[in-house]
Amino acid sequence: MPGLSNARDTAHAIDFLAYIVSRGCQAIAATYTILIKGIANEGFTEEVLELLNELYARGFMKKNSAKQLMVKIIYGSRL
Q1: Residue 24 — pLDDT band, cuts 50, 70, 90?
Q2: Are 35 and 5 in contact, with CB atoms under 8 Å apart?
Q3: Res 23: pLDDT
Q4: How many CB atoms lie within 10 A of CB 70?
Q5: CA angle, corner 50, sides to 32 and 7, nearest 5?
Q6: Which long-range contacts (CB under 8 A, 24 or more apart) does 29-34 make?
Q7: Contacts of 53 (CB under 8 A, 6+ apart)
Q8: Alpha-carbon span 53 to 41, nearest angstrom
Q9: Are 17 and 27 in contact (CB under 8 A)?
Q10: How far, in Å, CA of 10 to CA of 2, rounded?
Q11: Which of 3, 37, 42 is nearest to 51 (CA)?
């Protein structure tokens, strides 16, 4: 996942996540964080917001963690 995200190949990273989940593996918050950062690096900020909201709604991520990650994504690239 990190390699795919760093290579800006989030489409394959998403496919890989779907594959491991379909095989019974459970993704952890760090996995979603890597994926979210990769998506943000490709410029899909609106999609990142939607994904963060969905992860929070499903209980995969705490609200505070989602907010902190979004702040890092938005302001981290400007620092």
Answers
A1: very high
A2: yes
A3: 94
A4: 17
A5: 45
A6: 29/60, 29/61, 29/65, 31/1, 32/60, 32/61, 33/69, 34/1, 34/2, 34/5
A7: 66
A8: 18
A9: yes
A10: 10
A11: 37
What is the amino acid identity at position 7?
A: A
Token look-up 């410029």 returns 43
Structure tokens at 13: 């990273």
Per-residue confidence band for 68, with pLDDT thresholds at 50, 70 and 90? confident
Query: In which band, very low, low, confident or very high, does the pLDDT at 79 lie, cut at 50, 70 and 90?
Result: very low
- Secondary structure (H, E, C), the chain: CHHHHHCCCHHHHHHHHHHHHHCCCCCCHHHHHHHHHHHHHCCCHHHHHHHHHHHHHCCCCCHHHHHHHHHHHHHHCCC
Report CA Rg, the chain: 12
pTM of the model: 0.70
